[in-house]
## 1
Amino acid sequence: MNNESFSKDTSKTKTYSLVELVKAPTTMTDRGPDNSIFSFPVVAIMELLLTLIVVVLLLMMSLGVNAPLEEIANPNTTTDPAKAPWYFMGLQEMLEHGHPTLMAVLMPTLMVLFVVSIPYIDNTREGSGIWFTSKRGKRITLYTALYILLVMPLYVYLDTTFPAREMLRGKLPDFVLQAVFPAILMGIIVGLPLIFVWRYKPSPREMVITLFTVLFVSAVVFTLAGFLFRGPGFELFWPWDMPGNYSPWNNL
Amino acid sequence: MQRIKDFIVNSRVWRSFFRHGWPDNPLDRSLVMTSNIFFHLHSVKVSRKSLRATYSFGLGIMSAIIFGVLSVTGILLMFYYTPTVERAYSYIITLQTLVPFGQLLRNLHRWGAHLMVIIVVFHMVRVFYTGAYKPPREFNWVVGVVLLLMTLGASFTGYLLPWDQLAYWAITVGTSVAAYEPTMGSLVKSTLLGGPEVGQEALTRFYALHIMVIPAAIALLTSLHMWRVRKDGGLAAQDAPDAEMVEE
């Protein structure tokens, strides 16, 4: 075969050379054909459409429902209940279940620290860009979410209606009752799914999915409990069965 | 007609505005993106996979859009508002009753703020479950968490401004939580409020934080966040092998 590409005299025709060996995936190996398109105009149009949808939705909401406005601020009359903005109601709800330093400072700080360090705990590239990474990841998410949806509302309800911490007041030191006791209980609730998943030799990603799901669904449960289910006196009520003319939606 | 168009498009004035031709070919489509300050946050080409609506749900872009809506409505609200204990509340009443579209303006800002918190949280949840925080995107995840906290801060500081009972007691409750931190808590609280309880000093500080400090920080960090998305190779969706994109 007299092909120029395979000429034996490579010194003159060779146009490539080995420069360096790098321990990394190369740019194009093991990839399918370049499945990309020009951003313009597709992305610009999509963003314009999204803008229109968001603005129209907001406009319809704003035409339909007025922002709440109560009487002028009066430091001498407390509202009942006095609630933080809805996104902090999870924190305010936590305060009902233990020592403030544990519930409103330590736990949220640990949560934020965990969330920030997620990419450093799970630094594999496995499953990047795939929802739930795998079928197993999807199952873990689903079962963990169901477990928390069952356990956390129960915890909020039982801790409020049968306050063991109040009944044992005076018999045990306050610190044990308000800080150690709730911390152990929370530890067990959060730890159980982790131990369960641990038996199936999880990847770092699956451990992180378990813990994140526990924390996220718990945050949702506590926020909803505080925002929707707490009425006058910060007691638990059904949102549609609040005493007086109080409606949790007026707090938005 | 054609000659007029050619004359305009080839004039020095037009050429000084637009440094590319009509974007119907690869070169000009690339130049649109690289020569426009708003478009240049995007890459010139984008993977089809990252455009799938069910992958990202457009949540990040939506947060930015709502931030834009909040900036515009916020500036308009600033035209009518004064952050003083004596007058803030009556300005809200005036806005709602006498200013044309004043109530609508306030509604847009209020509901937009709530929606932004929800959308930003959803965005974080989406990024987490798609594993889009994985290398090389670790740092951008951290920036995102800071942006989430900033969003909460923006909403919280704005909550006080109407100076009604709802605002007053929400901020009182919210800031008293900070005081439970044993070492720095009371310092943080008194720095935020400028005094032992919510009053004129708190309103002044919350106003400054709400209209200046936090929005500027969000704008800056959002630019960093988006620029980083592009530098880290676009959305994580394009890292995924094609076969596994099919959902069960």
## 2
Amino acid sequence: MSEVLGAWQASEDWAAHITAWRILPPKSPLTAEVPEALHPRLKGWLAERGLRLYSHQAEAVEKALAGEHVVIVTPAASGKTLCYNLPVLDRFLRAPQSRALYLFPTKALAHDQLHTLRQMVEDLALRCAVAAYDGDTPQSHRARLRQNAQIILTNPDMLHAGILPMHTQWREFLAHLDYIVVDEMHTYRGIFGSHVANVFRRLRRLCAFYGSQPRFICSSATIGNPLDLAERLTGQRMALVDRSGAPAGWKAIVFYNPPIVDARLGLRRPLVEEVRRQANWFLARDLQTVIFCPSRRIVEQLVTYLRQDALEAGRDPSAIRGYRSGYLPQERRAIEEGLREGSVRAVVATNALELGVDIGGLAVCLLAGYPGSIASTWQRIGRVGRAQEASAALLIASSSPLDQYIVSHPDYFFAQAPERALINPDNPYVLLSHLRCALYELPFEGEESLGQDQALREALLESGQARGGRGRLFWAGTGYPSSEISLRTASPDQVSIVVPGEEGGFQPIGQMDRDSAPYWLHEGAIYLHEGEQYLVERFDWEAGVAYVRPVEVDYFTEASGTTRIDIEAIRQTYERPLATLAVGDVRLRTRVTGYRRLQWETLQHLGWGEVNLPEREMLTEACWVALADALLEALSEEGLWEEAPESRGPDWPTQRDRARARDGYRCVRCGAEERPGRQHDVHHIIPFREFGWVPGENDRYREANRLTNLITLCPQCHRLVERQVAAQGALSGLGRVFRHLMPLFLLCDAEDMGVHTEAQAPQTGQATLFVYDNVPGGVGLSAQLPNLFEPLLERSAELIRACPCEAGCPSCIGASIRPDPRAKERVLALIAALQRAWGRGAIALPPA
Amino acid sequence: MDSLLAKLRQIWGGHSAQGASLAGAEARREPPLEELVEGEWVSLPEGRCFFVEKTFALDQAHGAHRLGDLLAVPREVWEPFLLGQREPPFDPRAAAFFDVETTGLSRGAGTYCFLVGIGRFEGGAFRLRQYFMPDFSEEGALLELAARDFATCEGLVSFNGRQFDWPLLEMRYTLGRRPPPHAGEPHLDLLLPARRLWRGKLPSCALSALERDVLGVGRTEEDVPGYLIPDVYLDYVLQGRTRPMAGVFYHNAMDLLSMVALAARIGQVVAQPTEPDAYNLVSLGRAYACQGHYERALEAFRRAAGSANRHEAAQGRRELALLLKRLGRLDEAMAIWWAELEGGDVHPYIELAKQFEHRLKDFASARQLVLRAIERLEWGDIACADPDQVRQDLSHRLARLERRLGIGAFHIK
């Protein structure tokens, strides 16, 4: 591999663009004696196969056999499954009544493990029934599985809604439950993780009722705080096993920044093109390669290109496969199998492959862009390198500022610990949901509690959802609470994608979650699947079916939409003369309104289409900051919003007159008529700059100057609106910084929060920044912001100042296509103004 | 936390402390339960239970029936409808008619059976006992008293109890750390025979619909419709509202009496099916056939064949012929198919062709029948569910017959 990389470096001009070159030295395996306490049958099984245990496996097994709760954090392919399968089967050999519950974050992973485990049970000639129990399990099989299965593989959602509420049907299982295996523990973070922690609280409670005390064995990919997460998740003291004894081959990690191809515009070679060249270089040398892409579209684009290239080079195009969510399970299994046995030479994947899917060890990993977090970058890099073989991982930066930052500051990456996974099982919203479920499942005895639930229990009593009596607390409701509570914030609802079958009817080719579907499966969209193009002919929203047919076109489509926030109820307001901070309920509406057709290689804009799909709606909680006009006025007196005048394109005079005529020469905002001698102004709704017109290069001014993007305004109103738009820019920069910081303050995941800005929000009438809980109904995250507002502002200012970028980057205030050179300055000025508005010290809270 | 509590107060306003006290004031004007429902409070160490006992004479009318009618029904009638265990033999005189009222429709652990009604024939009368738990914490007393009652019965009669009431009751005993009550088997769930008899004949086979359409029973205004019962109970527990709760006792008692009358009607019909158009005799016949009661099944199909309803009559003849064929009474079956040939269905042609080809080895006749069927299918004057499939089967059959007859290839388009 070292020679290969030498050759790689020497070919073309690649060496000049390498910004980091780190070698992870090979590691020889560290094995350990099989623990004395392990059942002789299992010792024999290991010996027959000539298997020795790595030190971490021996350590984990020994601790589990000694009755400890264990969390194992070791690299991919280090044999984690043995760490839990051995103790589970050991127990089973000693007590055939024993049961075990395995939890995986997805059904697919559970089914993967099912095969491994069944094989092992068969090898050992054990009479031990192993079964998956999830939403796909036929009703007619369920009763039998509940009675007979000794090892059940399922997911937390099924445990929550399908098993715990019906626990009397599981009494045999729960009464003999000895082990709970939690695989891929790092996925249980943020609000989702907080929910799962409460599901475990409920499970432990029911086990206690039936007289069992199961042990937890968790396994996790590398994260910053595995022990802490495991203990919060399971509510148990855990033993950490994190010194891997697995061997590792020599591995090179290379950071590569594509060359600048247009010095005038500072444009680098496009990511897809660069990755394509690199991938072809390795594939031509027959090195099995995995390429991780940031989006489904790039996956499909690359598969298309690489297959074309393979065909031209006389290689087999079918050895190049895509892999992402939306492929059918059988298809994915086939790709995984192909990777393991070597017939698939390259797989182009999204993070769908990141989870513990077994694909063997490949030689080369290309990261098309920075995966967004240190933890997931290491997880992906960990996918390559067979036991003791050499491998290479290349990070190819995109031109996004975050990528540029990482690729130009490699030490930042190599020195930082992976991100921590944060959960808060006592989040009152989450806890309340599970308190209701737990009460439904079993009355509370005396002082028993589910967490810090005292106030919530009182609220349930007060509202008549719970009822006390004889020192116990009972559920007093007519419903089935777990059916109303989803552990995941994204909807589990799927849309299927079908093509006309050969003999009439339709055949499924893939599926997609409903929230994404409007963007990818609207009528007229070009949907890409394994590099094949399909035109969406009809999208039946109610039935959740997209009807597509194969086509060959030279363009792709890109949907765009709108987001609107309406304030439904204000709960608390903190008013200051220059700004208002408020907390309340909002209705978030998103809608895909249209799409562009763009030519493949040139990205030339070929036309627009309309999309007619229902709005997606979410009621949630938000905290918002509305800026008073006086604050904007003060900032404009500082000259903060001034912009250099710029040309609006050759058709501007005509378009301007047409807009004025259309609006009847009146200000559309205040209705004032034009006075003689002073024409009204014409304003761009989406700022002209954002269309990226470069004279002589493109004609994007046309799109910017479309009549639908223009309105007539009198000079006063225009100044006001311009100010609001500028303020919106600064606010959205602040919002991006908040997004980075909030998880640390709120113990949530970045995905749990959303940020939205309006130049003039319908209800406040002012430039407004909304921070909302990205969870239907809200979970009390944004409601905490008023108390955290000042420290948050302070940390935001620090972060922006400390960020080495010039005009904003994704690590701070975000990037735009045309960076505004004063962007950071403006956000900092806004922060300063808000800090002044709030004065020093904490906000005095009104009485609750 | 404070914002959550404030929000909860708003969302749950209907049940908030203020709302409760208003409703409480209303409830204070309502008399206590024992003034509305004749019964007594029983105190056990496990809790309190309100106990109601009523006795009905056997000649008391319930709609078109008398409660004692059931006792005249021959016992063997029930056999086809008993699922699972059949020992000891089912006897309505020893069985417990039971019906529970619950706090919800799901079968999860948070659904309580707050009222258990048990009725049985006892000392020349029908005696009905109801056990009611006045609060969640008092469940133990209800479970204890109901278990004592069940312990003296042999077998159960319910309406949808096999799927719902009985498993739910068993679950309550599990949760209360008690053994499940005795008397679980044999269990006659009247929903099954009711569906057999009236499916397709009545708009609904719910007990309330059967009561109205079959038994001719009317309820007074006191009745509480089933879907309201969980909320009525919560209003009783949380706010002390007794009047609607009294209606639930009435509802439960009426359900039990209707089960007795319904059992009598079912028994009579099954023992002696009359007025064919009123019952789904085809479905009944299939039930007999499944259980191996072939003579009864043939009888039911014959009656169906005599129906004035053409569709039902055709179905009856078809089932009759198929059962006769299964029983090896082929000539009788063939006679029916011959008679059916000019009807609107393709199956008599196929059945006859099979007989001629495989049993009688008369390939020419079989071929004639197949050709005729194909011809009529082409004209579109006989019906079948899947014409393409049938046409394909027929042409295969034809090809095979012609090979056997030595006729050259013959293609049907």
